[in-house]
Give the backbone structure.
Amino acid sequence: MLAKSHDGLPPGEAGTWWFEPKWDGFRVVVFRDGDEVELMSRGGKSLTRYFPDVVDPLRAALPDRVVVDGEIVVPTEAGLDFDLLGQRIHPAASRVKRLAAETPAEVVAFDLLALDDADLTSRPLIERRRALDGAVRPGRRVHLNQGTLDRDVAQDWFVRFEGAGLDGVIAKPVDSPYAPGERGWIKVKHSRTADAVVAAYRIHKDGAGVGSLLLGLHDDEGRLHSVGVASSFKAAQRRDLMAELEPLVLSVDDMGDHPWAEWSDPEAHADGRMPGSPSRWNGKKDLSFTPLRVERVAEVTYERVDHGRFRHTARFVRWRPDREPASCRYDQLEVVPPVELTEVLGRGRVSWG
């Protein structure tokens, strides 16, 4: 079951929506049949070998025969860390074992799909949630997601829990069945704007026009770091961007003047953030780009920043001809007050009223 984006909590009478914190991790469906525990990704791929550290805790927390929907997360003292989570997807078992010991993962359960011989997916959400609360025994590394029918509580979570690394709030109709593949839930996520340098672009996968703009921000020393990309342009806009940016394209001879000229040298990435670092998701992915003279500034929307980069793909809003590239710095980004993860994780608090 999936969610579609919405600006603000959805309207409706009290008690018609069930609200939960939205976690920033890997979606997972957990299957248990006796001693056998299998972790399945949203796309149907097995995640079990990458997260051996949660298998025994799940055996202790779940009934003998059950299917549970939830999220795998890696909590740290600074909040959730998606980068550490992503490092688990690695072919070397020794690396996975080491990371499981150094930065153990945890599971947050939020829906019950089957129990013993009963398929619960056709039952209303509120019944499944009550059944989940009775079936799961929260403990070491396994948690029940908080939930509420109270819109004011949900709005408070939306504001405060971001400081612990959460994405926002999920809203679910209380009478809705579980419909795999359908976007019957609503996700309300944080959105902010920033002015970023457009230092390069990548060609769209179909070869026609700009696929993504490569964005940068300056640190206090004036060094330009890669902070992510803006993409999802319509076909006509991709072609227009290509024509508009053509006068700024640097030739091979001029590439040495670009702040990311050494992008293809793996050692260069240790000294700063630039595009082209190896992808652990797709080692064969073409990470090359077309460098531009550093003259253009774009206003973009973003959700959050992790480790100096936009956590998700940004969205292009407009050009900012009134801004100088050197003025686009990290200090413009909003700093969210930290919140202890213990306030969010481990309680499984439910507000039925």
